[in-house]
Fold:
Amino acid sequence: MYAADDMEIGALPPLGYFDPLGMITDTEKFKRYRAVERKHGRIAMLAMLGTFVHNNFITFGDYSYLSISQDIQFRNVSNGIKGILQVPLAGQLQILAFCGFVELFWWPASQLDGDYGACK
Structure:
């Protein structure tokens, strides 16, 4: 059986309240960490979906280009880290700009309820 203080927010069996580094100092900080973990978990799921699609050679068609000017087709991009290095610098900057937009405006870290409006 767990002690009364083990049943506060963040307590999970069999560990009870587990914060070995002492990072959770109040309820608001705990809520923020939980929201950030939920958000990053969803981003990781999307990243894995992209990996599954790419590794199974699912492309946008035979004539789809990642960069027309450099003659790079999606089907010619390698898997993993080697693949991101094949993306032109302008494409990498677009990816970073999109991620920044999502982080700041679409799914802001200040939204702690976890409802990002994706499934309505």
